[in-house]
Structure formats: structure tokens, C-alpha cells
Amino acid sequence: MLARALLEAALEKSDEVEEKDMIVKEDDQKSVHVGIIGAPNAGKSSLTNFMVGTKVAAVSRKTNTTTHEVLGVMTKGNTQVCFFDTPGLMLRINGFPGKTDAWMRAENAWGSVNLYDVLIVIFDVHRHLTKPDKRVSRLIAHLGAEEHPKQKRVLCMNKVDLVEDKKDLLKVAKEFGDLPGYKRYFMISSLKGSGVKDLSEFLMEQALASPLVFLVASSLVDYIIHHYYFTAVKRPWDEEATIMSEDNMKNISLEVVREKMLHHIHQEIPYVLEHRLFKWKELRDGSIRIEQHFITQKQSQRKILVGKNGSKIGRIGMEANEELRAIFKRDVHLILLVRVA
Ligand SMILES: Nc1nc2c(ncn2[C@@H]2O[C@H](COP(=O)(O)OP(=O)(O)OP(=O)(O)O)[C@@H](O)[C@H]2O)c(=O)[nH]1
Fold first, then answer.
1. Fewer Cβ atoms within 10 Å of its own Cβ: the N or the C terminal residue of the chain?
2. For residue 124, what are the β-bridge partners?
3. Which ipTM score applies to this complex?
């Protein structure tokens, strides 16, 4: 379902791809950098994927699937919106024992969180209504509820499609509605897409610098702050972000296969599996040959993953192949092998 929604979104955006390919002079280019932060499973990857219209991060029903920072780019006309995931940051907020790799990653991510022009704080509103989610208030407290001089913060209440009585949403809106640092609130469903258009329009507007800020600046300090903000948002496109590097493509290929695997294999197997890219080759006709290996601990796990006469792994491979072809816009020959360690 989700894969189809993503594909449809990708196809729907094919006109925008043409737009993206148009040459926009550097003077006319605008961009805005958006960080997305939230507890595991809040829907950060789904939201990024929905907006960008293609797969940038693995999405699954299991938590902590985002293991590294992923960048997605949405380009419309002369405006580019770059999305940054903030993996591991919640670890820092919740506290964790020892200075692990995860801790280091979280510290690095924390260092950059204030650099985004917009910070989206996202949470699962359905979960919050079922059982108040302390992680949300802890996250807000950690970020500081007061207004940030250079960053616009927005609160996204995600998964509204799961809330049966929409009146319940008002309760949550009331609970978080008075935070001075959050000028905008969005009720969204990253899965169904409701509310996402408004959010995406808001983000696009942030890239448009308004000369009015100079007129309303009432003091020198105010002027400097606004001027800083003005120049910060009026920056040309991030060229690197628009190029899909081979490393990016390799990551995407692993993530798409992993997502399909998680969709088809529901036991503990995904967690004891090793999954690697074994070979990557661009062929003369422009197509890509990708070989990935799954390494299981036991023969019995291998059997489940392969399925009767290879039916499971075959299905995973076919679905992933189709999606990768749509994302890379070229032929893909995906080979999946399952071995026992
Ligand atoms: N019903 C519903 N499900 C959603 C929505 N957004 C995300 N999900 C589901 O919630 C689960 C987690 O979504 P992700 O996008 O992977 O969440 P995440 O915040 O990136 O998770 P981590 O990578 O673990 O930090 C997936 O099964 C999604 O399909 C939504 O708006 N509605």
C-alpha cells in the first residue's frame, strides 16, 4: 500500500521532474533547509518520502529503521526544499548509558539541529491520544519552547488518519497550541497525504525572502536578526543535494530491498539477518546490475526467507526491482541471494 502510494506520488510528480530539469539561473534560485525530528516511528521517513515523491529512507512498522542521516530534495519552479533526517537525536534527549557510537552520532546531529531554516517536530498523535507520549514534551522542552531567532519551528501531529473521533485532535491542539516557539501547527497523515500539501506550501514560502522584513525592523538588533535570516534563506540551490551520487543510489537500493523484506517477513528474522550490497555495476546500456546478499544464522531462517520454491525472495526481489527502476529511471537487474553464515 505504502509502496504504491509512494510510487503514485513519484509518478504524479513526473511533471515536476521536468521542471526540475529546467535550468534556473543562480540569481533566481531559492532554497530552504528543513530538519525533521521526532521519536522513533513518528513518521519522519514517511513524511520525507511523501514530500520528495521518491524513496529516500526505509519505512517499516518496526522502530529505529533510520540508521543514518538521509537527505531528500523537493524542487518546484525555482525553489528547492532540502529535508534532513535527524537520526539518533531522541537518544540524546532520552539519555542513554555510556558514550557509544549512537551517542556520538546523536551529539553530531544535535550540533546541527539549530542550523536548519525550519525544524519540523513530528509526533504520532494517535499514540499520544491512546497513552500520553512523554517523549513529545521532553523533546519540546529540550529544544526550548521559546521562539528561535533564525529558525521557524513547526509542530506536526501525524497519523491523524488513525484517530477515529476527530474532536480528540482538538484536545491535542489545545495541549500544544500555546507554545511561543511554534508558529505553525499541522495535522497531517504522512501515509494518506492529508495536510501535507499545506505543510509543503508553508515550507516553500520559507524560501521566499520578503523585503518587508526591512520595513518592519524596529531596531538595529531587529534589523540585524532579520537581515541574517533574510540572507540565510535566500541562498541558491544546494547542487550536491540534487545529484544522486552512486553512494546514495547504493543506500537507496539497500533500503528499498530492506523495506520489501520487512513487509514480507514478520518474524524475528529481519533482526538477525545481515544484509549487504555485494556487487554494483553500471552496464554499457545505462542499466544497473545490483547484487545483494542476505546472510542468515540458521538454515531454518534461510528457508523462511526464500519461501517455497523461492517464492518469498522472488516476490521481494520483483517488488524492489520495480520500485528501484521507477526511482533511478533506468533498467535495474536486481539479484538477491540468501546464504547461511
Ligand atoms: N496510519 C499511518 N501510519 C503512518 C503514518 N506515517 C507513518 N506511518 C507508519 O508508521 C510507521 C513508522 O513510520 P516511519 O516513517 O518509518 O517512522 P520514522 O519516524 O522515520 O521511524 P524511525 O526510522 O524508526 O525513526 C510505518 O509503518 C509507517 O507506515 C500516517 O500518517 N498514518
1. N
2. 158
3. 0.98
